[in-house]
Amino acid sequence: MANQLLKNIFFIAVLFLFLIVLPAFDSNLNTCQFMRPKKSIVFLVLLFAANAAFACTTCNKKLQQGIFDSTFYPNLFTMLLAFIVLGLVVAALSVLASRREKKNQAYQVQKLTAVPLISAATTLGIGLGGFIDGIFLHQILQWHEMLSNKIPPVTLLNKSVNMFWDGIFHAFCLVVVLVGIVFLFKLFFRKDVIITKNVFWGSLVLGWGLFNLIEGLIDHQILKLHNVREITANVPLWNYGFLLFSVLLIVFGFMLIAKSTGKNINSVTDL
User: Which of 26, 29, 207, 218 is 20 to 30 A off residue 95, Cα-Cα?
Assistant: First the structure.
């Protein structure tokens, strides 16, 4: 009973952490508001105060020891790091776009905005981009796993440990997708939002590209948790190719957004 309680506390803490990091927009979805520092500290304490009870509670003892060792908290933090940076990037882009748009709207009779849809769809695109990475590269193609450069999955134990961290990664992606859906739902109650398929799909692609770029820089280049393709004659080539593909996605996303908004929403093309 106590073990299950600690497990629930852990996942609730993770959920609120993402609600802190990802931009929590107000009812207009034009400004970014973060939770108060005191609440942030409480949820962070809950996140890192949990113990081995929530680490694969139904696994055998040897696997639990393999997961919850001295590297558990560093691994957990590094897993969160890419999502924290992504949340800050989305928040910064939203604030810049909102400020720019307010200046432009001063000269418009009918004040329409594309910022809320861009912010919501970009957040959704980040989460979906994580799922694309996890489903295709981790599971179907099995080019790499979350910690495959640190813990090569050459034994059943190492494979299972990597599977656990892949699950944590997908849990984070799920939370981001849910936050994006909530942001999109709020748009139904607004009449001043520009909603076009190019803005929506462009923002999804933009979010996907941002995820790949930030995750590729942090997990592949800086922390070296894994490579795009572990078993290959030229590992760096695949890593750099992944970054290039990310940049192309970002450019294509911006092009779709700019195509739809054109000269009416200058803030979009100025991001």
Answer: 218
